[in-house]
């Protein structure tokens, strides 16, 4: 007796479909992605990488011709040249990444996100000017509390000072550092922000840092009272009501 076809019997094939295997990404894929991203922002990166690679090879060859077997020095020079080229690419990629986000709201938090240990940063601003939308970000580490502002002008300075006083009332004995991110005089460029934060001198231990975090959590973040159904950017005072309805 012949076997009946599944289609003729109306039976469906319950066999699971084959899942397409995801191709594993190697380290050189990540390097190439970084190179493409950097080249979009910095077209000269190709020449910098090539000049570094062949420059180190040339130095190794000259040393080999002068003091020893040139083939041996050339073989040693290959991995050294590759490492030097990778270092240059990493530095150029870092600068390109900063250039892409510079001037954008929250760029300072994106830069400080590269600090993996020793600091705790709030993702949301702890203070914000209602009109200009100027934010103030906060971080806590062994050097104390750091307040990060973005932009220029008296509004930024006034907002940072108000948040510093607000924090000092809760933590009177903890150092509070205010860093203004920007390219004006007295400000810290975005490219040097991480280095500036890391250079702050530690004064607290781990237990004290935990206590500071707990107090700041109780203090809360930015509070912008917004009445229901009212757009704060379009709200206007009721001048007739202020005059008593006359």
Question: Would you write up a description of this structure?
Answer:
The chain has 246 residues and is of the alpha+beta class. It has 2 domains: 27-101, no CATH class; 107-219, 3-Layer(aba) Sandwich (Trna Endonuclease, Chain: A, domain 1), CATH 3.40.1350. It has helices at 6-9, 27-41, 45-67, 70-101, 107-112, 154-170, 193-198, 206-219, 239-242; strands at residues 119-121, 127-128, 135-141, 144-150, 176-181. Strands 1, 2, 3, 4 and 5 form a 5-stranded mixed beta sheet that branches. Helix 2 crosses helix 4 and helix 3 packs antiparallel against helix 4. It starts with 5 loop residues before the first helix and ends with a helix.
Secondary structure: elements and pairs:
Layout: H1 6-9, H2 27-41, H3 45-67, H4 70-101, H5 107-112, E1 119-121, E2 127-128, E3 135-141, E4 144-150, H6 154-170, E5 176-181, H7 193-198, H8 206-219, H9 239-242
Parallel strand pairs: 4-5
Antiparallel strand pairs: 1-3, 2-3, 3-4
């Amino acid at each position: 007796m012949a076997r009946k076809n599944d289609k003729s019997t109306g039976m469906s094939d319950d066999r699971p479909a084959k899942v397409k295997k995801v191709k594993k990404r190697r380290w050189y894929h990540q390097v190439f992605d970084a190179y493409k991203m950097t080249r979009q922002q910095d077209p000269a990166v190709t020449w910098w990488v090539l000049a570094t690679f062949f420059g180190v090879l040339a130095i190794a060859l000259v040393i080999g011709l002068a003091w020893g077997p040139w083939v041996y020095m050339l073989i040693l020079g290959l991995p050294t040249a590759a490492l030097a080229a990778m270092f240059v690419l990493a530095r150029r990629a870092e600068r390109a990444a900063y250039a892409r986000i510079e001037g954008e709201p929250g760029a300072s938090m994106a830069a400080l996100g590269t600090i993996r240990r020793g600091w705790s940063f709030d993702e949301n601003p702890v203070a914000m000017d209602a009109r200009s939308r100027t934010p103030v970000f906060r971080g806590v580490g062994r050097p104390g509390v750091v307040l990060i502002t973005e932009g220029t002008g008296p509004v930024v300075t006034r907002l940072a000072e108000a948040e510093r006083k607000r924090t000092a009332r809760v933590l009177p004995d903890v150092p509070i550092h205010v860093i203004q991110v920007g390219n004006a005089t007295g400000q810290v460029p975005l490219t040097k922000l991480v280095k500036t934060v890391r250079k702050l001198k530690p004064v607290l231990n781990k237990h004290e840092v935990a206590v500071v975090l707990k107090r700041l959590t109780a203090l809360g973040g930015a509070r912008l009272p917004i009445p229901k159904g009212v757009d704060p950017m379009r709200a206007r005072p009721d001048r007739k009501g202020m005059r008593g309805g006359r």
